Amino acid sequence: MKLPTTDFISDLPIYDFRKAITDAVDTNQVVIITAETGAGKSTQVPQYLSDHGYEKVIVTQPRILAARNLSYRVREEWQTRTGHESSAIIGYRTAHERDDEPSTRILYCTDGLQLVREITGSGTHQNQVLILDEVHEWNENMEVLIAWAKKRCQEDATFKVVIMSATIDTSPLADFFDTPAVITVPGRSFAVTKRHGGDVVSEIKAKITKSTDSNVLVFLPGKAEIKSVTEAIIKKALAANMPVIPLHSQLEATSQQEVFTHSSTGKIILATNIAQTSVTIDDIDVVIDSGLERRSEVRNGVEGLFVAQVSQADLLQRAGRAGRTKPGEYILAQLDTLPCVPFEDRPAYGTPEIMRKHINRLTLRLASVGINIEQLDFYHDPSKKAIRQAKQTLISLGAMTQGGDVTGIGRQMEQYPVESSYARMLIEAKLYSLSVQSKLAAIIAIQEVGGIAKSGVRHNGWQRFTKQKKSDLLAQYDLFIATPSIPYDDHEELGIITKNLDKASDVIKRLTQELGNIQVDNKVLTLITKEEAECLMKCIVAGQIDQLW
């Protein structure tokens, strides 16, 4: 095979730091690289290291879309440089997809611990580098990988790690790893003007009216909001011959690729935060930002998916999506009735996921691969109280023994992509009919979005649509299947949370895909029979046994 040339893309900011990066990795076990959006770190650094002589370069990404698209992009670049087929050299792997070979030299993968441990092996490649990309997102997986990488470095002096981020405070991270190797790379120089706007829909319509070729990227918190904004602008966009393209994690891979298509009349992309770091769309010149995201967190003791304001660092990253190839514009605008917090009133950085969620599932996931959560040194350390509470909850649910071993129930629970108490309910539901399992999955979906009914005497009109008296969870299920026959205009007076209805339907679809044989279709869900109510109550109690007083 022809050796790769050094003819890298020289107009990328990262290019001038190529030798500094390879020298730093040669002489340090841990290297930290910060590079602004558009600097080229995710595509170029792995190639620099591979060409420099490292036999295996493994790059973690927080999303499947990023792992897949980056591998495709680097394949194209590699083939251009070498003149040879690159599919055997660059590949990607996720928990459910695989496009690599034993000879693969640059491998992009998602950031699950089990997958990364399997790929890095133990002494399999003495001349390998693990790159942890997009560290600033600080999702739960990244927290675990950072802690595990530190432990691995202490145990194996040959293990090399490169940590890459767009916006992060490098000093504490360098202290955490005790490394002097910090490289800061500037971003592109195209100016992006920033302003506060009106509401999101009005700003989009204004761009459609004023411009015939603008490529507009709109940040929205979730799929439901993408749908409602599409309905509000589609007529005007079609009249201007501007395609409206959704982008979120639930889309098929082929649909996600549509955002990269060129339109001479411009295009409007309505995206979740998947477009913040995981996807680079080069031709964007306008970003309209709701300043919101949907994320998992605990509110009033219940973990669910909630809409929340993002940080200053997040806004700057989103603004960086514009102006990559020409001057751009960034507009922070209000979505519906949700408040639009000014930039200066937001926190500098977001709260890490590990600090805003229950860590029960994380504790179980680690235990299932033989790691005691207390033996890891986390960058954002959960409190000892939170760890003790998580272990006690798992013991109460029958997922772990007092000695910390994972039980058969625990191993089944670990397979479900939901919070531990819900996973325990689903395990219990296996004792009953598929109808009970389907209805329980729908109940869980409703709870995951924060419920669909308001509480309190002023908002109890919705209760006329249920006969369930033993459980609010069962009562809200009855309400959910009754809502198609309830006039939209009556929702507020009855205490129905309209915006959560579509969200619950989306979660039901996700659970249908992820739970395998449990088929949940909210169009054919039926009323709960007396016998099913007793079964469902037993499942719910099994998952909330640690909440009994």
Fold and architecture overview:
This protein is of the alpha/beta class and 549 residues long. 40% of the residues lie in helices and 16% in strands. It is globular and about 70 Å long.
Shape: globular
Total helical elements: 21
Low-pLDDT runs: none
The span between the termini is 69 Å
Descriptive key words:
single chain, 549 residues, alpha/beta, eight-stranded mixed β-sheet, six-stranded parallel β-sheet, 21 helices, 16 strands, globular
Record the SSE blueprint.
Layout: H1 18-27, E1 30-35, H2 41-52, E2 56-61, H3 64-82, E3 90-93, E4 98-99, E5 106-110, H4 113-120, E6 128-132, H5 140-155, E7 160-165, H6 170-177, E8 182-185, E9 192-199, H7 200-210, E10 215-219, H8 223-239, E11 244-247, H9 253-256, E12 267-271, H10 274-277, E13 286-289, E14 292-299, E15 302-309, H11 312-319, E16 328-334, H12 353-356, H13 360-368, H14 384-396, H15 408-413, H16 420-429, H17 434-448, H18 472-482, H19 491-494, H20 498-514, H21 530-543
Parallel strand pairs: 1-7, 1-8, 2-5, 2-6, 3-5, 6-7, 9-16, 10-12, 10-13, 11-12, 13-16
Antiparallel strand pairs: 3-4, 14-15
Helix pairs in contact: 1-2, 2-3, 7-8, 13-14, 16-17, 16-21, 17-18, 17-20, 17-21
